[in-house]
Amino acid sequence: MFLNVRRYLSNDSDSEDDGADKYNKYSELQRFKVHRCSLDLPGIVQLQARYANGNEAEFSTQQGASGPKLVVVMVGLPARGKSYIVKKLKRYLTWLQYDTKIFNVGNLRRNMNATKNLLEVPELLGQRRHSAAFFDPDNNDAKNLRDRMALECLDELIDWMNNGGRVGIHDATNSTVNRRKLILDHIQQKLSCKVLFVESICNDKKTVEANMRLKLSGPDYKNMDPDEALNDFRKRVVNYEKAYEPISEEEEQSNMQYCKLINVGKKVIAHNIQGYLSGQCIFYLMNFNLVERQIWLTRHGESTDNIIGRIGGNACLSAKGRRFAECLAKFISKQKIAFRQQQLAKHKADVEAEQQSDPSAIPAPEPPEKNFHVWTSLLQRTIDTVEHIDPKEFGIMHIRFLNEIYAGLYEEMTYREIEQLYPNEYNARKNNKLYYRYPGMGGESYLDVIHRVNPLIVELERMTDNILIVTHQVVLRIILAYFLDVDKESVPDMPVPLHTIYCLEPKPYGTKLTKWRYDEDTNWFLEEE
Amino acid sequence: MFLNVRRYLSNDSDSEDDGADKYNKYSELQRFKVHRCSLDLPGIVQLQARYANGNEAEFSTQQGASGPKLVVVMVGLPARGKSYIVKKLKRYLTWLQYDTKIFNVGNLRRNMNATKNLLEVPELLGQRRHSAAFFDPDNNDAKNLRDRMALECLDELIDWMNNGGRVGIHDATNSTVNRRKLILDHIQQKLSCKVLFVESICNDKKTVEANMRLKLSGPDYKNMDPDEALNDFRKRVVNYEKAYEPISEEEEQSNMQYCKLINVGKKVIAHNIQGYLSGQCIFYLMNFNLVERQIWLTRHGESTDNIIGRIGGNACLSAKGRRFAECLAKFISKQKIAFRQQQLAKHKADVEAEQQSDPSAIPAPEPPEKNFHVWTSLLQRTIDTVEHIDPKEFGIMHIRFLNEIYAGLYEEMTYREIEQLYPNEYNARKNNKLYYRYPGMGGESYLDVIHRVNPLIVELERMTDNILIVTHQVVLRIILAYFLDVDKESVPDMPVPLHTIYCLEPKPYGTKLTKWRYDEDTNWFLEEE
Fold first, then answer.
1. pLDDT confidence of residue B110
2. Which stretches within A319-362 are classed as H helix?
3. DSSP secondary-structure letter at B414?
4. A213 and A98, same structural domain?
5. Which of A14, A40, A171, A384 is catalytic?
6. Does any CB of chain A come closer than 8 Å to the CB of residue B273?
7. Of A211-225, A235-249, A289-303, B240-254, which gets the smallest average pLDDT?
8. Does B360 share its domain with B456?
9. Chain B positions in Cβ-Cβ contact with residue A406 (cut-off 8 Å)
10. Which Pfam families match (chains A, B) (predicted)?
11. Could you tell me if B518 and B395 lie in one domain?
12. A28-81 pLDDT, tens digit each
């Protein structure tokens, strides 16, 4: 009578445990009696339910139809890295298959400048809505308009959440107690879900100044004289600072769920964190840094199975694969030296600049060389690929979590054989590679691999060292998808050829990618555009 | 030339990334050039290294020979739950295979009372070293003795760490800035590892009072009149409070790594958290609660494979297994109702007590009924076991992480067959079931399963709902081992028969266990002693 699990059932996950409010009022599943569950791993955890009328439920495969929802409300002065945090969080949650969207009040304000008809406030139409005067806390008309814009933006978020969105992020300064109360009340009237306030505080003047300069290339200032722009932006920040009220202990009285990130996660304060999703967000936000470093990624060298097109298995390298492995060791050694030289050159320049401004200053000591890690899977073809890398220079580890997707019954078969022997399975996979789980004990889907790799992603965010990861096609796609913010539909078809090395460098506004291809003729790597 | 991975290689994990200090000075492996690596999953991550002299390294299988070390230093007034936190953290880390030990200053002090010869302070020998006077901050002799005892205890910890320990926990009040500086300096002189201060703060008077009463049954007061004891203990706390200096922002200047837990994790402040191990500790500490609830655990009903002794596979239930499944549904429904009745009875008693002390008080509303979750693995035998449980009453989920240990090549074989066909493997497993990994693609060890189940353990700690988990022999052993603090050597041999239900109730000082056995004759469950 009750619904049995179907193998390809994908994203019918659970929802949050919040006591009495047992039923998800706002989802498409409101006709069902769906229990709110605590654990939420979209696509991994499978929910059993039936219609309240006793019929079996056919789960929608559309993402976000059920499951927990969360509204994240940002708090903080301009130039404190809110947008950085917001983009990163969105990228991570999207990668984990939570449908996530950012609602930016600044963009709405700029749209209003363009259309001038969204809200009619005649006395303000003459003012540019990013000039400092617009942000003067004593400018009451402007304040009211800013509140209305914040709510306007919030309404868009709420609409989106009611149409299946999972995590909506309200990206604005929300810098007073009153504004936050307004926002919270507004959400609680219209949406049944948890709200997490995330405040970004930065006391480090250098970081704030750097953030301000980044802003000048942004949309508010693109046609403005840079000096005038910086000046105006500084005034805007001063105006915000006048009225800024950090999240306070008084706000804790109302059981507000919040997280303060101080100086890029150097200090973190978390209050009343409830639910799996909020906990994951905070764990993620606690674990990132802005240190310059390189993450090198590649697949193993060509294996004997690659030649005949067999999937899975535990083959050794082909002759070609062994040549790649030899060359890889030389290449990565060279890159390690180049990075160190760059680091020393930068240090020298910094010391010289400091000495010019203050000749009596004691020069900072040379920074230590970064560790360089090498991670492979436990499979022979990745272990053999790092065979020539010197463990005296590199810390080499073999990690089960980096193993290739496990193809269950189809291990060591070719796609052609699968197509001929199991045409239904072959087509099911073709139609939905992301959700398709290989049959047989232990068979995995892309989603299974995402959740298996998740702790390594958090670890990569936490690390400040350089690293080379030698892994497999599916795992490489999944890691690249995280760093490059690839659409989930595109992940299973990303081209990641053998004998190609990717270098990722996390930067304040995204990840810089360079690509190198092994060239057999020259027995060296060529940089691709 | 370089060492290849051996399949049973167990605990040769990495160490922390802390910049220049590349080599682990104090471990047994100091002869090796071992790179400090960031990720640390004992037994899962495998490190490649060789002797500095070029010989291949045979890794010690002894736990903790290499890898990161951490000293946790507790801070907080008496009766603020320090011992609770310390025991829990030790249990969790030990379960994750980090060799962890608690060094309690109170126990050392009590030993001194007994032997009176550890430190000779004649003027104090007359005083009982738990009487309130001993804790008076103006009692300088006693203060010096307390400092010396704290360092004495710390030296024991340092010795133990230098002999292979991984996480040493200094369990004392450490309630002044000076004391913490003394401790930190002392560690840094003698040990090269990170130090994490964990401060427990509790402003909730009810909790503190309850903790104080618990103390009276402890070793300091066991032969004392209860009223006198409570009085003395209260005075002791007052004396501590006089001198107590919570971890302050000034201490942040020296880059102190700390975590404050306020009111049982309601609020958490983390500062300068570095390294994988510290991050995991804090994530764990952020995710627990003291709410009364029940965790029910059982294996699936007997399967057709169980009858013939086949391991792994995806068999259905036998007729006997199906009878168990039917009875289980009735039993768990009954337990759900019983828990609810208990909850309501307690509520009623609370309301009556309150009304007696204040007849005008408005009675608190009836608490909502707890959600009751049911988790199974993705294997048919667990799904069939919950077939009769009503999804209108229970939130049912199927989770891959709860699947049985994957036996790789030996799936669907009997132990007898393995013994006959692969005697070497059979013996290797018999000699070290914990570290033995089944051969073949995807084959797992107990340690692999521990790391796979880890996120579910954190989730169980976070949840406040009731739950029934229907899983498999190895996974059940591993979950029980966590809650019941079972020695790692004993885990693989724990008897966990079919058709037996375990009920775990987390309590302030450990986990209460009750056991129920399915009786075929009466078709019901009998409670075992």
1. 75
2. 319-357
3. B
4. yes
5. A171
6. yes
7. A211-225
8. yes
9. 441-442
10. 6PF2K (PF01591), His_Phos_1 (PF00300)
11. yes
12. 333 333 344 445 555 555 554 433 333 333 333 333 345 688 999 999 998 888
Residue B243's pLDDT is what?
85
Q: In the predicted model, is pLDDT for residue A353 greater than 70?
A: yes
Domain containing B225 — which CATH number? 3.40.50.300
Interacting residues of B207 by C-beta distance below 8 A, sequence separation 6+: B81, B263, B264
For residues B229 and B135, membership in a common domain is answered with yes
Mean pLDDT of A390-412: 92
Q: Give the residue from A269, A286, A303 where a domain finishes.
A: A286
Q: How many CB atoms lie within 10 A of CB B526?
A: 10
Distance from CA of B414 to the nearest CA of A (A): 17
- Alpha-carbon distance of A525 to A523, in angstroms, equals 7
More confident residue, A70 or A113: A70
Alpha carbon of B263: minimum distance to chain A alpha carbons (Å): 10
- CATH number, residue B472: 3.40.50.1240
The DSSP result for A368-403, as a single string, is: PPPPEEEEE-SSHHHHHHTTTS-TTTSEEEEEGGGS
Residue A171 known to be catalytic: yes
ipTM of this predicted complex? 0.83
A422: number of Cβ within 10 Å: 16
Amino acid at B486: V
Residue type, B459: E
Which residues of A fall within a CB distance of 8 Å from B472? none
Closest CA to B454 of B5, B7, B43, B12: B43
Q: State the residue for tokens 């654990």.
A: A39
- Containing structural domain, residue A148: 70-286
Q: How far apart are CA B258 and CA B254, in angstroms?
A: 11
| Structure-block tokens of residue A81 | 């890295």
Closest-CA residue of B relative to A3 is B387
Last residue of a domain, one of A44, A66, A88: A66
**Cβ separation of B270 and A271 shorter than 8 Å?**
no
| Strand A295-299 to A500-507 pairing | antiparallel
Looking at the structure, do residues A132 and A198 belong to the same domain, yes or no? Answer: yes
In a domain, B236, yes or no: yes
Is residue A221 pLDDT above 80, yes or no?
Answer: no
Note whether residue B351 is domain-resident: yes
Residue B71 CA to residue B155 CA, distance in Å, equals 12
Residue that is written with structure tokens 């738990």 in the block: B130
Q: Do B474 and B334 reside in the same domain of the chain?
A: yes
> How far apart, in Å, do the first and last CA atoms of chain A sit?
58
* Strands A372-376, A466-471: pairing kind: parallel
Which residue is catalytic, options A153, A193, A202, A503? A202
- Does the residue B182 lie in any domain? yes
Model confidence, pTM: 0.86
A409 touches B: beta carbon within 8 Å: no
Please indicate, yes or no, if residue B319 is contained in any of the structural domains. Answer: yes
- Are residues A231 and A281 both part of a single domain? yes
- In this prediction, residue B3 carries a pLDDT of 30
Residue range B93-140, pLDDT digits in tens: 999 999 999 999 888 777 766 554 444 444 444 455 566 666 677 777
| Number of structural domains in chain A | 3
**Could you tell me the pLDDT band of residue A480, with boundaries at 50, 70 and 90?**
very high
Interchain contact B270–A (C-beta under 8 A): yes
Do A2 and A82 fall into the same domain? no
Return left, alpha or beta for B466; rule: phi > 0 is left, psi -120 to 50 is alpha, else beta: beta
Task: Tell me the C-alpha distance between A458 and A374, whole Å.
Answer: 17
Q: How many residues does chain A have?
A: 529
* Runs of H (alpha helix) within B378-520: 380-385, 415-421, 423-431, 446-462, 473-484
Count CB pairs under 8 A between chains A and B: 190
